[in-house]
Amino acid sequence: MKNSVVTFQEMKDKGEKITMLTAYDYSTAKLVDAAGINSILVGDSLGNVMLGYEDTVSVTMEDMIHHGAAVARGAKNALVIIDMPFMSYQTSTYDAVVNAGRLMKEGRAGAVKLEGGTEMADVIKQITRASIPVCAHIGLTPQSINAFGGYKIQGKTLDAAKKLIEDAHAVEDAGAFAVVLECVPAALAEIVTKELHIPTIGIGAGSGVDGQVLVYADMLALFSDYKPKFVKQFANLSEEVVNAFKAYDAEVKAGVYPAPEHTYAISDDVINKLY
Ligand code: KIV
After folding, report:
1. CA–CA separation, 61 vs 49, rounded Å?
2. 40 three-state secondary structure
3. Atom of ligand 1 nearest to the CA of 56
4. pLDDT digits (tens, 9 = 90+) for 164-201
5. Distance in angstroms (rounded) separating the CA atoms of residues 102 and 187
6. What is the DSSP letter of 221?
7. DSSP reduced 3-state for 82
8. Could you tell me what percent of the chain has a pLDDT over 90?
9. Given ligand 1 and candidates 213, 214, 219, 229, which is best to mutate, with the most ligand atoms within 8 Å of its CB?
10. How far apart are the CA of 225 and the centre of ligand 1, in A?
11. Other C-beta atoms within 10 Å of 242: how many?
12. Beta strand 200-203 with 79-83: parallel, antiparallel or unpaired?
């Protein structure tokens, strides 16, 4: 059955862990879906993983719609959440609602995600008023990399921890159906999870949260530019992929591939009449 934001809340209420992985294309979405993962995030991390940018700042609405729609076509059961890219919702609540609407109508998302806490409460309120479910994202918010001055753990001082808890309540009160906690100390993420009614989805936030999200290319070791501490590589596909590419290169050059079983036949009659 297709997962929805209601499924998320039911899972939290029953104490069941929620799983989420990113995907950016149809074929990967089908694999994630086949594995029974509850939700697929079309993260703006596609800027790093798919497009080779050094951060997510340059990702556009068109990028998110293009990749989001492909994922939506491949996801039969998983809830598809599409990230709102940098500057698609920070400029005004009007822009935010229009752009969230495009991700739903053109990207076929089941929900959108945006970064920010207290300062984004109005935006979350207006988008949810348009019947668009919003997943919030607090802690380390990569779109603010230039303001943060780097990718750093968030919420470590007393003031920062209080601010994180305040942000979590603000997004819940504004109507978010879930909140991603990125790069937050485990004990703090656990406090937030206990205080909130909506599910918390952690990435670099320990195990005391309601669910986990990872970038699929990180957990398969397909993305090699850097590896955050919180990433566990569940497979090393880059090694397998490079070996397969090497085997193809060798077989083509040796005339081994394509073999007869990879070719299409034609009757000798036809061939003979060509001369
Ligand atoms: O863009 C993304 O992939 C994300 C996750 C890291 C939560 O926002």
Report:
1. 17
2. strand
3. 1
4. 999 999 999 999 999 999 999 999 999 999 999 999 99
5. 37
6. T
7. strand
8. 96
9. 213
10. 16
11. 10
12. unpaired
| Alpha helices, DSSP H, located in 39-185 | 46-49, 61-74, 93-105, 121-129, 145-148, 158-174
Its pTM stands at: 0.96
Tokens of 9: 């809340």
pLDDT score of 1:
80
The three-point CA angle 165-93-21 to 5° equals: 55
Residue carrying structure tokens 């598809």: 80
* Joined tokens for residue 19: 């799983």
CA of 59 to the centre of ligand 1 (A): 13
Residue nearest to ligand 1 atom 1, measured at CA: 43
Within 10 A of 205 (CB to CB), how many other CB atoms are there?
29
- The single residue listed with the structure tokens 């936030």 is 205
* Active-site annotation holds for 182: yes
Amino acid at 15: G
> How many Å is the Cα radius of gyration of the chain?
22
